[in-house]
Design brief:
The protein is mainly alpha-helical and about 425 residues long. It has 3 domains: about 1-115 and about 290-310, no CATH class; about 120-275; about 320-425, Arc Repressor Mutant, subunit A. Helix content is about 70%, strand content about 5%. The protein contains 11 helices and 4 strands. The chain has helices spanning about 1-50, 60-80, 90-170, 185-225, 230-255, 270-275, 290-310, 320-330, 350-355, 360-375, 390-425, and strands spanning about 335, 345, 375-380, 385. Strand 3 and strand 4 form a beta hairpin. Helix 1 (about 1-50) packs across helix 3 (about 90-170), helix 3 (about 90-170) runs antiparallel to helix 7 (about 290-310) and helix 4 packs antiparallel against helix 5. The chain starts with a helix and ends with a helix.
Length: about 425
């Protein structure tokens, strides 16, 4: 029998130890949630301020950011502490305020996450844009150059054909008396001079185009080196210089050809090429799901942890307040376990109490006191439920009452035993 009692005592001691460890662990998690909420709110506030400061004065953006983050945390705590059936207007007002604050926070935080996530993409887009613009211009230059060279090649072939026909006297333009006369006559010398001039002119033109091709090749080489170059500024400036030289030289070469020169691209400056992403509402056109999810995730965790913290009491109750609350709550008679697995009680008078004109001022004061301190939650007009932080207080007082009852029972048993001894002694 004693072994059984000892085993029960050991089991009770182990269970009590586990319960204490679990209570301490849960309490530490609740305490740890507070700095996490503050850090998340600070992180969200930084990204919100960053985006907002690009549209309004920084100090006004800071004030608005503090207001937005405060509304998010406060409304999350408020929603955790009330039921929509208790006060629908208040509940929906808080919910609308929370949604507006979240929309503002996520919208302006999106700009910062967009800049972080799309920085490399935007740089690549700018690089591709520069390369594309320059290459398109060079392709047009090459097309015009090939057209001009082909035209002059045909003219040179025609001049060579004219010389040959003039030598054999078969040229259509030769006078009748020189027809079919073979030899280097005056007519041949005239067409030969034209041919030699065109040939020399074509050689000079081709030499000029060879020089232009070298500059084009150098320009294309610098374009390919732009992304991996250590000194990107010098390479970019060289690209601008070479592009301008190609444009000037090419326009000079075709100025007498009667051909329209292709329009050269206007490249961005190096500062524009390397500048960071400036927040603007145009970012929503190139919507980034990753940036949006990151911005929403920070605020989601802030709301979630704030909600889980619930509306805890701002401070512990004094012993007198605990005793007053315990005695007043004992006067209520209708209790049940609700759908939230919380103890729920009816705070209205019963029919019998109404018939007796019972004054429930003291217990209603206790209810109002606990509601204001976060130990009770109002479900609707006639019922409230216990908050998790009220159970330990009630359990402690119930334990004290049980100890008092046990002590009274023990003293009563002892006194009865003494009386019996006295009676037996008298006998």
């Amino acid at each position: 029998m004693e072994n059984i009692k000892q085993m029960k005592s050991q089991g009770a001691g182990l269970g009590r130890l586990i319960n204490r460890v679990q209570t301490v662990f849960v309490g530490m998690l609740r305490i740890w949630s507070i700095p996490i909420v503050l850090l998340l709110s600070l992180a969200s506030g930084f990204t919100t301020y960053y985006g907002l400061s690009h549209f309004i004065v920084p100090w006004i953006a800071l004030i608005i950011t503090v207001a937005i983050q405060s509304i998010i945390v406060i409304c999350s705590l408020e929603i955790a502490g009330i039921h929509w059936k208790a006060n629908r207007f208040r509940y929906f007002t808080i919910m609308i305020s929370l949604l507006i604050a979240l929309a503002a926070s996520i919208s302006f935080s999106y700009f910062k996450f967009y800049e972080i996530s799309e920085k490399d993409t935007i740089h690549i887009q700018r690089l591709n844009q520069v390369q594309q613009d320059v290459n398109q211009y060079l392709n047009k230059v090459t097309e015009v150059k090939n057209t001009i060279l082909e035209q002059h090649r045909k003219e040179l072939e025609q001049a060579s054909k004219d010389v040959t026909q003039a030598f054999f006297g078969t040229h259509p333009g030769i006078v009748p008396r020189y027809k079919n006369v073979v030899g280097e006559g005056p007519f041949w010398r005239r067409y030969n001079q034209i041919y030699q001039d065109k040939k020399k002119e074509n050689q000079l033109r081709e030499q000029e185009f060879v020089k232009l091709d070298k500059k084009i090749l150098n320009l294309q080489s610098n374009l390919t080196q732009l992304d991996g170059a250590q000194s990107k500024e010098s390479v970019y400036q060289k690209i601008l210089t070479l592009l301008q030289e190609v444009q000037v030289d090419f326009n000079r070469l075709i100025s007498s050809e009667g051909v329209e020169a292709p329009k050269a691209p206007t490249l961005m400056s190096y500062m524009q090429f390397t500048q960071g992403v400036k927040p603007s509402f145009s970012m929503w056109k190139g919507f980034s799901m990753f940036a949006f999810v990151c911005a929403a995730m920070v605020d989601f965790f802030t709301v979630l942890l704030s909600y889980r913290l619930e509306f805890t009491a701002p401070g512990p109750l004094t012993e007198q307040e605990e005793s007053l609350v315990f005695e007043c709550l004992r006067q209520f008679t209708e209790f049940r376990i609700n759908e939230n697995d919380e103890l729920e009680m009816v705070i209205e008078k019963t029919e019998l109490e109404r018939a007796r004109h019972y004054s429930d001022w003291s217990r209603m004061f206790a209810v109002g006191f606990l509601l204001s301190r976060g130990f009770l939650r109002k479900i609707d007009e006639r019922t409230v439920e216990f908050a998790p932080n009220l159970y330990p207080l009630i359990a402690e007082h119930m334990g004290d009452k049980l100890q008092e009852l046990k002590a009274k029972a023990a003293s009563k048993t002892k006194s009865e035993a003494v009386k019996l001894e006295v009676v037996h002694g008298n006998d």
